[in-house]
Amino acid sequence: xxxxxxxxxxxxxxxxxxxxxxxxxxxxxxxxxxxxxxxxxxxxxxxxxxxxxxxxxxxxxxxxxxxxxxxxxxxxxxxxxxxxxxxxxxxxxxxxxxxxxxxxxxxxxxxxxxxxxxxxxxxxxxxxxxxxxxxxxxxxxxxxxxxxxxxxxxxxxxxxxxxxxxxxxxxxxxxxxxxxxxxxxxxxxxxxxxxxxxxxxxxxxxxxxxxxxxxxxxxxxxxxxxxxxxxxxxxxxxxxxxxxxxxxxxx
Length: 251
What we know:
single chain, mainly alpha
């Protein structure tokens, strides 16, 4: 938590520096007081840049928020699939498949989450547990129509489980492209530079500082949401822990 807060503070400080340093340089080079066409042009360009900059931040922020929501939905689908397999295996009379399903849940909680937090990748232990579950299901030999239906349902859940696991791995390894960070920082610097037409009074500096702090916080939130397993607001294995608790109670 403290590391994430330190990173957030760093984002805000960098944003303030990026927003104010170019304006200070421009004032030293061109003076602090400007009227007429220069001020009108700077105000017009700053407005256009501000709209474009805000649009870029808004689109990327919306994307990472939607991606975080998709991840949580996928986790619930993955946990529901393995839980479904466990209880269908009980109806089938396949204790080995039940044990494999429970083993997969244990591997996800004990190995996947630490691995995704530290390396951004799902664990090898989780893949091995999935292959063990797949092998257990493929070894089933249905004796009647009821067991055939149960086996087909478990196989369908297995494909859902594997697909959601792959998507989870892709999302944990993803990151925000460098091009976005470059555009965001350059845009903030250009907007800040154009404030050189105004005198550096405490009121003006407070206004620019407020904008820079807000931009820094938005940039940090984008950065944090792109790291769902190691950021300040993390995604936990709650759905899998609920499934494990269900296995233990048998309900």
